[in-house]
Design a protein that fits this description.
By secondary structure, the chain is mainly α. Helices cover 74% and strands 2% of the residues. It has a single domain (3-516), classed as Sodium/glucose cotransporter, CATH 1.20.1730.10.
Length: 521
C-alpha cells in the first residue's frame, strides 16, 4: 500500500476504534436483560431517537446506491425516490410514532415488532408473532447482505484487495460490534454515524462543486446529456457486454427514455415502506417520553432532506468530474468513493470514507439485531419455550446473529450485486408485509387477528410474485413491487376483517385507551 492508502486506513481504524468503544461502554447495561438489549429500556432521547432512526434506515445505500443511480441514468429515478422517502419519513413520524409508542406500552409492554402485533390482538396461539418474525428473518437477512456488499465494494476499491475477502472482513466487524453492545450501543453509535454521514456528504459536495467550476458547470454538463437532468425523462446509457460505450473520450448515451406519471408514482412509493420498517418503528417504541417525538420529527426531517438532496447531487456532479470512471451500473455506485479519494487529502478522505462505513454499520447492526430478536425472543421464547430465561434468550440471539451473518455473506458473494436493487426488494418486503397492518392496527378498531394474518401473508407474497413473475411482463407491470403489494395487503386486511368475527371487547378497550391517551407507563 502507498502512503495515501495507509493514511486512509489509519483514519478508518481510528473511526472503528471509537465505534467499538461505544459498544464496550454500553455492553454491561445491554446484558442486564433482554429489554435493555433489544430496546434500551425505553430510554432514548429525542436527538438519538431521530438521528439513529434515520442513520439505521438509510445505510450505505445513501452514500453509494442513490448517488450511483443519479450518476448512471440522471435525475429522475433518484430524485423521485428521494422525494417519496422524504414524504414517507414525515408522515411516519407525524401519524405513527406517538400512537405506536403508546400502544406498545398498552400491549403488555411489547419490545419487538412481532410481539407488538401479537399482543395488540391478544393472541393465545402465537400465529401472528411467528409469521411476523419469519418475514423479519427473511427480509433483514437480505438487507444485511446489501450492507456487506457495501463493505466489500468500499474496501476493495480503496485497497485493491479481493472483493470477497474485504466483504467478509467488513461483515465480521459488524457482527462483533452487534454481539457486543445491543440496542443502546447501536443507537448511540448510529447518532454519531448520522453526523458523520451528513458531514461526509456536505464536504464532498462543496469541494466537488468547486472542482467542477461551480453549480452552473455541473448543471450545464447534465443538460448536455439527453434526459439526464429531467424529472419526466431519463438518460439512456448505451451498453455493450455490460459496459457503457465510450467514443472520443465521452460515454455514449442514446435517446432519452420516457418517464411517465406511473413511473413517478412507482418511485415515490418508496415512501410507503416507512410504515413497515422495523428499525425505524423500534425507535418510536424506545423513546423515553411520548411528547419528545415532535422534536425528534423535526430533527429527522432536516437530516433526511439535506442528506437525500446532497446524495442525488453527488451523482449528477460525478458525471461531469469523472464521466468515464464507472462504466457499469454496479460500478456507478462507487462514485462517492472516487470523488472523496480524488478531491481530499488522504487522511481526510479516510474520515469521509468512514461515512460509508458509518452508514453500513448503523444499518447492518440494526438489521441483524432485530432479526435475531425475532427468532430468539419471538419464536423461541414466545412460542417454543415460554419459560426460557433472559440468559437463554440472549445466548440464542447471539447464535442467531452468527447464522444470519453467514447467510448474508453468502448472498453478498457476487461483487456485481447492485446495492440499490437489493435494498429495493427488502424495502418492498417490509413495507408491504407490515406497513398496511401497522396503519390499520393503530387507526382502525375493526382490524382483527384474521385480517392481520391475511395482510402479512398477502403483502409479502405479492412482493415475491410481482418481482419475480408479473414485472417480467413489462409496461405498466414493471412498476416497483411495493406499490401493488401495499395496496393488495391493505385490501386483504379490510376484507378479511369485515368477513370474520369482530375484535373482542378487551381489544376494543385497548384501542380506545390508546386513542384517547389513557395509557399508564
Amino acid at each position: 500500500m502507498d502512503g495515501n492508502t495507509i493514511q486512509i486506513l489509519i483514519a478508518m481504524i481510528l473511526y472503528m476504534a471509537v465505534v467499538i468503544g461505544i459498544g464496550v461502554l454500553y455492553a454491561k447495561r445491554a446484558n442486564k436483560s433482554s429489554e435493555e438489549y433489544y430496546l434500551g429500556g425505553r430510554s432514548l432521547g429525542p436527538w438519538v431517537t431521530a438521528m439513529s432512526a434515520e442513520a439505521s434506515d438509510m445505510s450505505g445505500w445513501l452514500l453509494m446506491g442513490l448517488p450511483g443511480v443519479a450518476y448512471w441514468c440522471g435525475l429522475a429515478d433518484a430524485a423521485w425516490t428521494a422525494i417519496g422517502l422524504a414524504i414517507g419519513t414525515y408522515f411516519n413520524w407525524l401519524i405513527v410514532s406517538k400512537r405506536l409508542r403508546r400502544y406498545s406500552v398498552r400491549a403488555n409492554n411489547s419490545i419487538t415488532l412481532p410481539e407488538f402485533f401479537s399482543n395488540r390482538f391478544r393472541e393465545n396461539k402465537k400465529v401472528i408473532m411467528f409469521i411476523a418474525a419469519a418475514f423479519i428473518l427473511i427480509f433483514f437477512t437480505v438487507y444485511a447482505a446489501s450492507c456487506f456488499v457495501t463493505c466489500g465494494k468500499l474496501f476493495s476499491t480503496l485497497f485493491g484487495a479481493p472483493y470477497v475477502t474485504m466483504m467478509i472482513l467488513g461483515a465480521v466487524f459488524v457482527l462483533l460490534y452487534t454481539l457486543l453492545g445491543g440496542f443502546l450501543a447501536e443507537s448511540a453509535s448510529d447518532f454519531m454515524q448520522a453526523i458523520v454521514m451528513i458531514v461526509a456528504l456536505t464536504v464532498i459536495v462543496v469541494i466537488g462543486t468547486a472542482k467542477a467550476g461551480g453549480i452552473g458547470e455541473v448543471i450545464q454538463n447534465a443538460k448536455d446529456i439527453p434526459g439526464f437532468l429531467e424529472f419526466f425523462g431519463m438518460a439512456n446509457p448505451v451498453v455493450e457486454d455490460g459496459q457503457q460505450l465510450v467514443e472520443a473520450g465521452k460515454p455514449v448515451f442514446g435517446v432519452a427514455q420516457e418517464y411517465g406519471l406511473l413511473t413517478v408514482f412507482s418511485m415515490m412509493a418508496w415512501g410507503l415502506g416507512y410504515f413497515g420498517m422495523p428499525q425505524v418503528l423500534l425507535r418510536f417504541m424506545a423513546i423515553r417520553k411520548e411528547d419528545e417525538l415532535k422534536r425528534s420529527r423535526r430533527i429527522a426531517m432536516v437530516w433526511v432532506v439535506i442528506s437525500l438532496a446532497v446524495a442525488v447531487f453527488i451523482g449528477i456532479m460525478g458525471r461531469q468530474l469523472f464521466p468515464e470512471a464507472h462504466l457499469t451500473k454496479s460500478g456507478a455506485e462507487n462514485i462517492f468513493i472516487t470523488l472523496a479519494t480524488s478531491s481530499l487529502p488522504a487522511i481526510l478522505a479516510g474520515f469521509v470514507m468512514a461515512g460509508i462505513l458509518a452508514a453500513t454499520i448503523s444499518s447492518s447492526d440494526s438489521y441483524l439485531l432485530i432479526a435475531a430478536s425475532a427468532f430468539a425472543k419471538n419464536i423461541f421464547q414466545g412460542i417454543c419455550k415460554k419459560n426460557a430465561s433472559d440468559k437463554q434468550v440472549m445466548t440464542l440471539s447471539r447464535l442467531t446473529l452468527l447464522v444470519l451473518a453467514a447467510i448474508g455473506i453468502i448472498i453478498a458473494l457476487d461483487e456485481n450485486s447492485i446495492i440499490f436493487s437489493i435494498v429495493s426488494f427488502a424495502w418492498a418486503g417490509f413495507g408491504a408485509t407490515f406497513g398496511p397492518l401497522m396503519l390499520l392496527s393503530l387507526f382502525w378498531k375493526r382490524t382483527n387477528r384474521a385480517g392481520a394474518i391475511a395482510g402479512m401473508i398477502s403483502g409479502a407474497g405479492m412482493v415475491f410474485l410481482w418481482k419475480l413473475v408479473i414485472s417480467k411482463l413489462g409496461g405498466v407491470f414493471a412498476i416497483y413491487e411495493l406499490l401493488p403489494a401495499f395496496i393488495f395487503s391493505t385490501v386483504c386486511i379490510v376484507v378479511v376483517s369485515l368477513l370474520t368475527k369482530a375484535p373482542s371487547k378487551e381489544i376494543e378497550e385497548d384501542f380506545e385507551a390508546v386513542r384517547t391517551g389513557a395509557v399508564e407507563e
